[in-house]
Design goal:
The structure holds 2 protein chains of 2 kinds. Chain A is α/β, with parallel strands linked by helices. Chain A is built from 22 helices and 32 strands. Among the domains of chain A are: 69 residues, no CATH class; 220 residues, Rossmann fold (3-Layer(aba) Sandwich), CATH 3.40.50; 120 residues, Barwin-like endoglucanases, CATH 2.40.40. The longest helix of chain A is centred in the first third of the chain and has 19 residues. Chain B has one domain: TorD-like. The chains are: A alpha/beta, B mainly alpha.
Chain lengths: 801, 192
């Protein structure tokens, strides 16, 4: 067959490559600067770029495969509209797998979108518009500017997706927000003596940023502990792996506290000066003793402590050390009080390592070793991720590990760690009023946890028009997918911009083809490394794809805001560069990056952001959590209490659905991006269910057979993969597969969209299933023969049911 | 293509394309007409079809069918570009756009001072563009040159493309167009 060699024969090996500076920007947060080699106007190769802050050279396999994302035949090529949709007769029930589209001109597409926005505002009010953007890219698009000008509702991660761990941490420290809290920057981690990576496979899913620093610390003598139910790429690097049962993380942290209390390994000075451990708590109602009852003019942030030298209570401000009792009980003016730390120790005493070992499937000695290393080896830290918060009450873990690190005094010192993907503060742009323009109508924000109600029930308003971009929400991380599809049928019009035809654009009425990142000029900020990147356009967008900026500008023009969007995006970027003494076009163009402040930072050196300026190891203002499997009147969280829903052994349906179901992040994708890259699909061919051979053989399932993973919400058919690295009782299918990659059903159908009253966060891993051998019709090799593997695709479509 | 012009008299061209059922070498007009048919259906094409067939062609359904088969979105598309069928690394995959065969086709065009019209945003190895170029060669160059181009390019992938399109169960117009195109490319085999 000469067709194989014909192509090679004409490839020119003469001529010169042009090296174009650009950057990657999915939601791994890496934002890795890349060199793109262009010859004869086409991209030939991608390499990591050495950025200005050289020690932060990064890049991964995914970044190297962009060639197959740019030149993917499956890209969205032209604006399209669903043939059965029209402004007057939208027929939302015609969306989905069988929907037909027709190509339309850009002008017509933008007219339809702009007219739709005006019409929805006119007929149903401004709050009938819903703006949605996920985490698919980080460039300058003008999306936020246009949205602010036009008004409406916007949805948001807060609360809803991965808002548990940070929320719990923030509640007792006053620091951070709902996502990962502040931490010492990565270049300081080498000073750590003990690092506990808790529920995160950073050597697989974020290895481009954090992994090397962890290895540096290990080389420098740090002990690495990994807490993970799965023997991961990260676990294999550990000095000590704690193969915890899913959902028992708070139990484990309390057991470590118990060990630390019992062996007097807590940091007394830190507890006295920087936490409310010595604060006096009233035994009758659990509130802190009122400073005004002790002194007439208490300092604003004062707490009442018991001075063991004077033998009397006194009020002390934040950051004050002294001979304050850490434990004890007294009666002051007839009121019985004890210290906050007494309450915490009392709580921890119920979780001795021996007992928790049993509950959590661990060895008591291992729990003690981990606690001992953290408490006695010198500065260290705990590095959780979002995975450990993907349980209904996962915010309690945030409170718990913040408290544990307070016991060991691991705040404000070199070598302390509190989170993965640390923040470098210097990589920002001087955007002026770009995101907050004059004349903004403003938008109301709804967390993803509330959007389903908003769409389904018109509560509190009925949305009619949705504009989405940078997101494959129906492909990933939106649980109970069927409910979202139903809810979206209340929308007259769904407009979506993307590079590819995703499971989400398939539900759209108007599809707008967005440019690949390499086809845009842009400025990129990041917080995971101290570089600011410039994207030079490698070539124009293919077909009629457009940089999102020009889509926004086209809409702005039609909506009366054209004067606020320069015709040339470069003029916007130029404004940001000119605003900023650190930046110059010469440097950006020549090197691709500008180094921002790269001084290693130690976090938490100042007063904490709580009312008292101290970590509240006893939270007198604790919320009461309510939800499934909790007592009717809820549970108050002054001190960490292990709360469990579906992972609990006594969960009501535990017998019917005995297996816990996790959806780990994969090294082959960032969320659902890269799922359509042939090179990657050669290795990672299809979704699989990681299952322990014991669980499989008990169910008569052979390695490689197709299985139906099911519960009372839905099911998905995937291939079983015997995996000794996953514990019995737990199964896993990696997240981020597209609907078309499943033989039948969908991963998201199995997961509940229910959230807890306080947590308000989707609990992807708080999921129980049963697994059975799939029907014979699914056991043929037909599926694998026609496996879409990215760019082609005729397999059974998960959307069809 | 520029500077060569497409045959704008689509009605005549389409008629010619479908009526020319002889065994002789296809005319330049036939290549040009086929090329016109492989583009996104426009009003000219609809008028041409209306004029030449008894039934009225529904322009919207023709456009929808063209979108479904050749533009996407979705899995039933057959991207009408040479590299997609020739430059993939494995048979099971669709190849990339802008592959090495795309470059080879573009080099043919530039040898003759031609390039795809600015209005065509598609890669240069679009089936319609290759047919337009065949029309140019048929008109301006010798038979051997045309033969060489057809052998190096459209004949090398049109069968794979046709198989994939047929799997998507095309409506009559595109089924016929596909047959006529495959047949035309084969017929040109006969030396002039």
């Amino acid at each position: 067959d000469d067709s194989d060699t014909a192509g090679d024969a004409v490839t020119s090996f003469l001529g010169e490559d042009q090296v174009v500076k650009t950057a990657c920007s999915p939601n791994c947060r890496g934002k890795c600067p890349l060199d793109v080699f262009v010859r004869d106007g086409q991209i030939k190769k991608v390499e990591q770029q050495v950025p200005a802050a050289k020690t932060f050279k990064r890049g991964c396999t995914l970044g190297m495969t962009h060639l197959q994302r740019v030149y993917n035949a499956d890209r969205l090529k032209y604006p399209m509209k669903r043939t059965s949709w029209s402004p007057d007769d939208p027929q939302p029930d015609q969306r989905g797998a069988d929907a037909q589209f027709e190509r339309i001109a850009w002008d017509d597409a933008l007219d339809l979108v702009a007219d739709g926005i005006q019409r929805a505002k006119r007929e149903y009010g401004p709050r009938s518009l819903l703006w949605h953007s996920g985490s698919g890219d980080g460039g300058i698009t003008g999306y936020r500017r246009l949205k602010e000008l036009v008004g409406g509702l916007q949805d948001d991660f807060t609360y809803g997706i991965d808002t548990n761990v940070g929320q719990g941490f923030n509640r007792v420290t006053g620091e951070g927000g709902v996502f990962m809290p502040p931490t010492n920057t990565a270049d300081d981690w080498v000073n750590a003596e003990t690092i506990i990576i808790w529920g995160s496979d950073i050597f697989a899913s974020q290895f481009q940023m954090d992994a090397e620093w962890i290895l540096d610390a290990k080389r420098n003598g740090a002990k690495l502990v990994v807490v993970d139910p799965v023997y991961t790429n990260t676990a294999e690097k550990a000095d000590l792996w704690l193969p915890i049962k899913p959902g028992k993380d708070t139990h484990l942290a309390l057991a470590m506290m118990q060990y630390i209390f019992e062996h007097d390994h807590y940091d007394e000075a830190f507890l006295r000066s920087r936490t409310n451990a010595p604060a006096l708590v009233r035994a009758d109602d659990g509130t802190l003793l009122d400073p005004a009852s002790v002194t007439a003019t208490p300092p604003e942030d004062g707490i009442v402590v018991f001075n063991t030298e004077t033998g009397s209570p006194e009020v002390v401000p934040a950051e004050t050390n002294g001979p304050f009792a850490l434990f004890g009980e007294w009666t002051i003016d007839g009121t019985t009080v004890h210290t906050g730390l007494t309450a915490l120790r009392e709580q921890a005493s119920s979780y001795p390592p021996q007992a928790v070992a049993d509950t959590a499937g661990l060895a008591a000695a291992d729990i003690e070793t981990a606690a001992d290393w953290l408490a006695t080896r010198g500065p260290g830290g705990i590095m959780p991720s979002y995975g450990v918060g993907r349980y209904l009450y996962g915010h309690v873990f945030g409170q718990t590990y913040a408290t544990l690190l307070a016991l060991t005094g691991d705040y404000g010192r070199h070598g302390n760690i509190h989170a993965q993907h640390p923040s470098y503060d210097g990589s920002y742009l001087e955007t002026g009023d770009w995101n907050d323009p004059d004349g903004a109508a403003g938008v109301d924000t709804y967390g993803y946890n509330r959007v389903l109600d908003l769409l389904a029930n018109g509560d509190p308003v009925q949305t009619k028009f949705m504009y989405g971009m940078n997101s494959n929400m129906l492909g990933n991380q939106f649980p109970e997918r069927d409910r979202w599809l139903d809810a979206m049928s209340n929308l007259d019009t769904v407009v979506w911009a993307d590079i590819y035809h995703t499971p989400t654009t398939r539900q759209a009425d108007i599809i707008l083809p967005a440019a690949h990142w390499f086809e845009t000029e842009d400025l990129l900020t990041t917080y995971t490394h101290p570089n600011l990147s410039y994207r030079t356009k490698a070539h124009d967008p293919l077909w009629e794809a457009r940089d999102d900026y020009y889509i926004m500008a086209g809409l702005a023009q039609r909506l009366g805001h054209g004067d606020k969007f320069p015709d040339d995006k470069h003029d916007v970027l130029d404004r940001f560069v000119k605003n900023d003494d650190r930046l110059s076009w010469d440097a950006l163009r020549e090197t691709g990056t500008v180094a921002t402040d790269e001084t290693p930072t130690v976090a938490y050196t100042d007063e904490f952001g709580t009312e008292s300026g101290r970590i509240t190891v006893y939270d007198d203002d604790a919320p009461v959590e309510e939800g499934p499997a909790l007592p009717d009147d809820g549970v108050s969280l002054e001190v960490p209490k292990p709360l469990e829903a579906r992972t609990a052994d006594d969960w009501a349906h535990a017998d019917e659905y005995p297996l816990l179901f996790m959806q780990k992040h994969s090294k082959w994708r960032i969320h659902s991006q890269w799922a359509n890259v042939p090179w990657l699909r050669e290795i990672n061919t299809e979704p699989q269910l990681d299952i322990h051979p014991k669980d499989a053989t008990r169910r008569g399932i052979d390695d490689g057979e197709y299985v139906r993973v099911h519960n009372d919400r839905g099911s998905v058919v995937v291939r079983a993969k015997y995996n000794d690295g996953i514990q019995p009782g737990l199964v896993n299918t990696d997240q981020g597969w597209w609907a078309r990659d499943f033989v039948d059903g969908h991963l998201q159908d199995l997961i509940s969209a229910e959230t807890a009253k306080v947590g308000r966060t989707f609990a992807f891993y708080d999921c129980r299933v049963e697994v059975t051998r799939a029907a014979d019709e699914h056991q043929s090799n037909e599926y694998t023969q026609h496996n879409p593997r990215g760019s082609s695709g005729t397999a059974t479509d998960g959307d069809s049911s | 293509m520029t500077p060569a012009t497409r045959n704008n008299d689509s009605a005549v061209a389409v008629a010619d394309a479908f009526d020319d059922t002889g065994d002789g070498p296809p005319t330049a007009a036939r290549f040009a007409a086929l090329a016109a048919c492989w583009r996104q259906p426009d009003d000219d094409l609809q008028a041409a079809l209306a004029a030449e067939t008894d039934t009225t062609v529904d322009a919207q359904s023709l456009r929808a069918e063209y979108t479904r088969l050749f533009v996407g979105p979705g899995p039933s598309q057959s991207p009408p570009y040479e590299s997609v069928y020739r430059d993939g690394e494995r048979d099971a995959d669709l190849g990339p756009v802008y592959g090495s065969s795309t470059q080879a086709v573009a080099r043919w065009y530039s040898e003759y001072g031609l390039q795809p019209a600015a209005s065509e945003s598609a890669p240069p190895d679009h089936l319609a563009t290759e047919l337009e170029f065949a029309a140019y060669l048929r008109e301006h160059e010798g038979a051997e040159t045309l033969e060489q181009f057809l052998t190096e390019h459209p004949r090398n992938w049109v069968e794979s493309f046709a198989r994939r399109v047929r799997d998507a169960d095309p409506k009559p117009f595109y089924r016929t167009l596909l047959n006529v195109t495959v047949d035309t490319l084969a017929r040109a085999d006969t030396p002039l």
